Amino acid sequence: MTKTVLFSAPAASWESYAPFLKNLFDKVGLNINLVQDTNNPLNVDYIIYAPNGPVQDFAPYKNVKLIQSLWAGVETALQNKTLTQPLARMVDPGMSAGMADYVLGHVMRHHLGMALHGSVQPGEWRNDTAAPLACNRTVGFLGIGALGMYCAHAVAKQGFNVLGWSRNLKSDDVVKCYAGADGFAQVLGQSDILVLLMPDTPETLNLINADTIAQMKDGAAIINPGRGPLIDDAALLVALDSDKLSGATLDVFRIEPLPADDPYWTHPKVLVTPHIASETRLETSAAVVVENIGRGETGKPFLHLVDRSAGY
Ligand code: NDP
C-alpha cells in the first residue's frame, strides 16, 4: 500500500532532497508518495519537517505516525503546541563529522594561543607562550550526546585528555564520564577548554554563570556551538574582562543574527561565528529519514524520538 510522506521544509531544500529521497525509498522497497503539499491532511502518514517550513498547524494531520525533523535542535518545534505527534530529531553522521571539524579547529585555536598571536602588535615578541602538549591539556564537554560524544572522540584522537558530562551517567573507553552536580563541578574544575554541546531547556538555561565560571580553572576557554541561552552573557563578559577566562568561541546566541551592537562582536577575546558550526547534510540525513520511515512501516521503534518531558 502506498504511504504519503509530506515534505514540509523550505522550497529550496525540496529541490535537493526530493530526488534523493525518492531514490532511497525505491532502493529499500518502500512504496512512498512524496509530496510537497496536500489537500488531504488525513491521508498523510509521515511528515519530514523543518521549523521554518510551510506547515505550522499540525492539528489536521491526525494520522501521522512520525514527524521527522531535519534539525538537531528541537526547542522551536517544542514551542509549537499543535505539534503533538511523535517527533524525531535529526541525528546525522554528516552533521556530527562537520561539528567535530569545528570543535577540533577551535580547540586547537585556544590550545595554540592563535588568537593572541593574531592580535600582537609589531615587535611584540611573545616567545613565552609555547603551548603545552595536548596530553597535558584537558578538554571538557558539557553534553555528550550524539554530537558531544563524537566530537569528544575526535579531540581525544589528537591526544587531549577528555571529560564529558551528561544527565545520565555514561561509560566510555576514551571519555571520562561524569553526571550530576558533583560531576559538573569536576568537569568545570579540570577543563582547560570547555565545549558546550547541550540543548536549550529550562534546566540548561544560564548553566554557565558567575558561580559556575568561578569554579572553572583560571585562564580556561569556552567554545559554545550548543545554544546561546546556556551562557549568562554578562557573566561571561565579566570573566573575560577580568582575565578569569582566556577566550571564547561563540557560534550561537540568545538573539540570532547577533545584533551589530552586541559587545561580543568587538571583544578582543571573543570569536563570533554565525551559527555555522555544523548543519544537516543531504546524503547522510536523507538516509536517516528513510531508515526511520522504514522502521514505522516494519513495526520497529523509531530512532531519535524527542523526550518532551526532558525538552530534547
Ligand atoms: P543530544 O540530545 O544527543 O545530546 C544532548 C546532551 O546534553 C546529552 O548528553 C544530554 O544528557 C545532555 N543534557 C541535556 N540536558 C542536560 C542536563 N539538564 N544536565 C546534564 N546534561 C544534559 O543532542 P546533540 O548532541 O545531537 O546536539 C546537542 C545540541 O547541539 C543540540 O541540542 C543543538 O542545540 C546544538 N546544535 C548546534 C548546531 C550548530 O551548528 N551550532 C548544529 C546542531 C546541533 P543525556 O545523554 O544524559 O541525555
What would your notes on this structure say?
With 312 residues, the chain is α/β, with parallel strands linked by helices. The protein folds into 2 domains: 3-92 and 280-298, 3-Layer(aba) Sandwich (Rossmann fold); 94-272, NAD(P)-binding Rossmann-like Domain (Rossmann fold, 3-Layer(aba) Sandwich), CATH 3.40.50.720. The protein has 10 helices and 12 strands. The protein has a 7-stranded parallel beta sheet with strand order 8-7-6-9-10-11-12, sandwiched between helices. The two termini are 33 Å apart. The structure holds NADPH dihydro-nicotinamide-adenine-dinucleotide phosphate. Residues 72-73, 91, 95, 143-148, 166-168, 197-201, 203-204, 225-227, 251-252, 275, 277-278, 312 line the site of NADPH dihydro-nicotinamide-adenine-dinucleotide phosphate (NDP).
Top keywords for this entry?
10 helices; alpha/beta; Rossmann fold; binds NADPH dihydro-nicotinamide-adenine-dinucleotide phosphate; 5-stranded parallel beta sheet; 12 strands; 312 residues; 7-stranded parallel beta sheet; 2 domains
